[in-house]
Amino acid sequence: MEPDLHDQQQQQRLHSVVIITLPPSDDPSQGKTISAFTLNDHDYPLQIPPEDNPNPSFQPDPLHQNPQSRLLFSDLSMGSPRLVLGLLGISLLAVAFYASVFPNSVQMFRVSDERNRDDDSSRETTSFVFPVYHKLRAREFHERILAEGLGLDNEKFVESMDLELVNPVKVNDVLSTSAGSIDSSTTIFPVGGNVYPDGLYYTRILVGKHEDGQYYHLDIDTGSDLTWIQCDAPCTSCAKGPNQLYKPRKDNLVRSSEPFCVEVQRNQLTGHCESCQQCDYEIEYADRSYSMGVLTKDKFHLKLHNGSLAESDIVFGCGYDQQGLLLNTLLKTDGILGLSRAKISLPSQLASRGIISNVVGHCLASDLNGEGYIFMGSDLVPSHGMTWVPMLHHPHLVVYQMQVTKMSYGNAMLSLDGENGRVGKVLFDTGSSYTYLPNQAYSQLVTSLQEVSDSELTRDDSDKALPICWRAKTNSPISSLSDVKKFFRPITLQIGSKWLIISKKLLIQPEDYLIISNKGNVCLGILDGSNVHDGSTIIIGDISMRGRLIVYDNVKQRIGWMKSDCVRPREFDHNVPFFQG
């Protein structure tokens, strides 16, 4: 008689429990673990029969060697199937809960899979890496250290640095022969920067044809749309910057009918001039400084991170009239590098031509080591370890913003001047040296900081470096923030949800908002933002970006950050000395 398959299936009904444990968010290198338990109603023998075990060296795992463990699961299966299913449900809920609380660990696997798929197809875009400087003496120091490390004469090495884009073979040969196994396609430049006393970071770009190209130092500004350079058109009011004025050619001027001119003039008070032969622009900044000029185009020479070079005709501003405090900045730079989301910005122009994907990243190191870099393109975005939040998107919003649901100084809540006081906006702006809070939040912060005077510090109103400074009660100069940061508390920005357990946060430590002044005092690098931007937006300036890699992904509409020493992009750790010394 044929056996009853239905009865047999009921007798041998299987129940399985699968538990997946993801790695800690702060140490994804531990990997994930998967534990599977198969439960059956039958009492199988504990030892595997020899005929069913063709591999005599195989040893059953401890679970199969422990009859008590096996009988326990068997009893659960026989006595209460619902309990087993309940355990399975709880396990799945635990995994879902972990993914919501620690999304970075889950994102790591997702991004890794995406990158593996990308590797199977040819890449159409690449990334650019730019050096970031703060002043000439820092650049000379870094180049001297690198030259000594390579065993080169300093004068000759600086000359080769200036010619690197004009004659890339010469520089690549120098680095490859001097550094041995270094791949010349991954050559990166040493960089520097600070918040105080210079208050700016800039990079260096070669503009013009090879035979008459000139390097210009441009202040990197994620809050600016237009890239512009001081020019001799002739110049009405220009500061004496580190390099000679750019000389525009008449045949390179942008006509008023071109789309970029319409884009730039649309937001100006004078509006778009259709009958004009040239395209004039005027930009006013938050401190009432302004730049006036005309749009032109010329070749920008950009070094790809794989060592190859690209040149592209870029539309930018020829600034012949600068006024206000902007002239002080231009003593150290030649202009502004616009990095916003606007169509006229440099990354947007490169992305529109398929040269890069529209992703911008920067890493401004603390003043302790003075290094940093900026890149355009997605190749150098870390595959894990980043905290990602949605980017606020609006048709007329071209700056990098996110929403914040709570803000606190230590345990003290700070008000948000957003919608009904419940949701605020945070703007990332490398063009601002310091961080700004709305008036009410700033006042609450200053009140909370009165407790600092109960420590070893006291207010010093004679120090004009910043509005609020403290000196040591012993009158001895403060040499390091490490000596005084214990008297201050961190500022926490909570993003996404008001429930801390499922939200993300940006933690601003005391060293991220304090500086040491020339008088040896510690000063507050957070200012009243009542008259900055719209007065209700939290502006994260350079001082609070130091020691972090910050990425603006305009393709996926997200902003991300992670802690970093900013010595080199993570992709270069294994094959190139990004900075030596």
TrEMBL record:
Spans through the membrane: 83-102
Assigned protein family: Belongs to the peptidase A1 family.
Record lineage: Eukaryota, Viridiplantae, Streptophyta, Embryophyta, Tracheophyta
InterPro entries xrefs: Aspartic_peptidase_A1 (IPR001461), Aspartic_peptidase_AS (IPR001969), Nucellin (IPR033823), PEPTIDASE_A1 (IPR033121), TAXi_C (IPR032799), TAXi_N (IPR032861)
Enzyme active site: 221, 429
Biased composition (Pro residues): 47-59
The protein, known as: Xylanase inhibitor N-terminal
One of the record's GO molecular function terms: aspartic-type endopeptidase activity
Native source species: Arabidopsis suecica
Record's keyword terms, sorted: Aspartyl protease, Carbohydrate metabolism, Glycosidase, Hydrolase, Membrane, Polysaccharide degradation, Protease, Transmembrane, Transmembrane helix, Xylan degradation
Keyword Hydrolase: yes
PROSITE patterns: ASP_PROTEASE, PEPTIDASE_A1
Domain called Peptidase A1: residue spans: 201-562
GO BP field: proteolysis; xylan catabolic process
One Pfam assignment: TAXi_N
Region annotated Disordered, chain positions: 42-66
Superkingdom field: Eukaryota
